[in-house]
Write the structure tokens for this entry.
Amino acid sequence: MANLSNDILYAALNELSVGIIIIDEQQQVVFFNQWLSDHSGLYLMQQEGKPLDIVFPQYLGSRLSTACESALSLGLPSRLSNTFNPTPLPLYQKNFLGDDKHLIQQQISVKKIAIDSSTPLCQIVIDNVTHMVKKEQTLLKLADENKIQRQKAEIANKSKSQFLANMSHEIRTPINGVLGMLTLLNDTQLSKTQQHFSKLATVSAETLLNLINDILDFSKIEAGKLDIESVAFNLADCIDETVQTMAIKAQMKGIEVIVDRTALIDESVIGDPSRLKQIISNLLSNAIKFTEQGEINIKVNTTEVDTTHLKLLVNVSDTGIGIPRQKCSDLFDAFTQVDASTTREYGGTGLGLTIVRQLCQLMGGDIEVKSKQGQGSQFIFHLLLDKDDHIIPPLKAFNEKPVLVVDSNVNSGQMVSRQLQLWGLDVELCNAKSEMKSLYSKIENNNFSVLLIDASIDTFLLENIFTSLANANKSQSNKTQVILLTRMDNSYAKSSALLTSLMTKENVHTLTKPIVTKSLHRKLTLSYSSESRLSELDDNNKAFEFQSFDDDDDEQVKILLVEDNRINQEVALGLLRKIGYRADVAKNGLHALELLQQRQLSEPYQLVLMDCQMPEMDGYQATIAIRSDDQYQLSSQVNIIAMTANTMKGDQEKCIAAGMNDYLAKPINPSLLAEKIAFWLAH
Amino acid sequence: MQDNLTPLEIDALTEIFNIGIGRAANSLNQMVSQTVDLTIPEIEILPNKEAKQKLDFDSEMEISAVTQRFSGDFQGQALLMFSKENGLQLVSLLLGNKIPIEDLSELEQDSLVEIGNVILNACFGTVINFLQSSISIEMPEFIQGNINKIFTYSSDNDWSLYIKVKFSLPSQQIAGHISFIMDITSLEVFQESVRKFVFGITNKASV
């Protein structure tokens, strides 16, 4: 240090790329360096000894001068940030002296120079932060722009959703008309050709509806608008129902559908049953579509993940055309099918599996496919469900004598046997094809409590089985009961005289395939109890009860239909007529209110079927008026069912919030309409 | 430590720090468009360990702090601490920022340093003016991190003069915490000067 001469120190200070000013106790300039000269245009020679507020008038009364004072008097150091003091001194970029556009952005430190021997000095160090300020301004601008862009995108996305909601409504309304009219058309006298045409038109309209549903779902998932529900439901029932609704199509193609849920532990779960149904239906409909013969197996099981979560694993396998290995990977991408010709041959949007995968992922799972061309496909998906505290008691076990199962399908037979064994029964399984001879003697010699027989086995075989059974029954007091496993579509049974005669026998019960656990258990209980078969017949016919309404019973018009669209009026009236009701028609909310008021003193309406979107006064407003306006006091409690093509989430809530009792989505499902009408007229 | 300050002495200390912090408020008001009022509701002298607990910061919470070291009659480190959120809020309120920020930019960090500097200087000024102490003070620095990082350069054996600072802005109140961390020897010197000062004014009053 001691070796450094003043000259060297001077030179060094002048080389610095920061500004340095040194002032004395009277705040007079002692020194400033070359950097400061360069950027202020001042020369030390001319300014030395002058008070700083004379050199820089801005200094007078500034925060910088306060800082210098406290540094000189109390030794307090100060930092002047650029944000609060951007340009305290008039310093400019080189070559732009005096140009306010090129002021240097400053950051200043003020500190007392502590030298014991002399009077105190204060040092002002000025940093040029112009670059940093520019950088931050740019960043801020980008952040702002980004934010604006994001807002724009959000608005665009919202209007997209709104557009979809509107489109769905707009498209569903005419399809409702088409489907409804076709239903009515089918009930009129049609020639064979006309029937054929009308059937094709129905299929096309239904396909179009499914297509729109798919596209809607897909767009909703893409927009992140699809919410997964969380409600308690019975997992086993949900799966059984789904499989049963799909199975009829398979059986019509002669494909066996086997649902095996013997490994299902927990039945009561919390999750989204309708989305689960959607996944299974989608996989099943693909399996049915791509399988010409053989069978479709659905295996279900649950495993415990932790104390509150379950993993559901479902395996849907078929014996269909299969998928080439290299195509398996992009099967789940939107709009891909195995090849373009698939679309021509089998139809479909190519969105189904994409939706399925997204639904699985939304529910904390995923899906994979295993397949070989020509050897069928397996779709295996898993998802997470919450456990429900509610425990469903297991089905009662049986302790009756052995049961014989005769099935033409190996897997189906095995599944039924496994299930029966779980219930504590001894089971003998017989393959109808290979063990014919031993079968008869078995039936005659073993004292079976129940025979489960596949109705689709060879008629000759069936006849022989019943002969053997008759022989066996002669020798024992308890008649062996028979459960015939029939197909859902029992038109073939009608054509077979043998089956018809068998089905009317006292000891013969029928159970439709695919066999679902609960029905199997019910039929067994029924077989073992002494209940007559009459109650069973009742059971089977319940679903068709509504068709037998007698027109005369409902002479007085109790129903008011509020609907603006002429075609939809026709459709609804036609559907109502079919199930034995007549209705008055109002063409909008205002008209409906008029009619309600007219009728409320004589014969008030008991039920209103209300469209939601109508000109002049919509269904929501009309409902609110009925419920709250004193004019309609006598009708204020009338039951109102909404009928609307608005099927976006929240529509149902909107109807209920307006005061309606129930909700029917268009296109109207005739049996659902009948059910709801029967229910609300009774209440 | 042999003698704690009496409640009277603590009262006197609180009083003079409030005068000092009032000056800091004036400086802040000149710097920014907002009106800021600063008050010191509470002063305490306690072991560093207890002072840390008193701050009520979770061990993982991010803290923004401005620190200045001092040496002379007594030596140690002064800290002004905010929870990260409060620090952000204070800066954006004082700068009149409309856009909510998630992190301080480098320049904004610097403005927090300046605010801290003004406040800590006011405290140092009080100590120098009223207690006639001779100390020299370093430039302010910014530290961000959890409480252990903030207190890296102090030990649990040290003592802390803990001062709570309340920032009252028209729309909001924000709390800051000041800790003057000193070793036991420095603390004794400090307390002695407080006693002298209080003795001085009480004597004057009784004359």
Remarks:
- Residues 106-131 of chain B form the longest helix (26 residues).
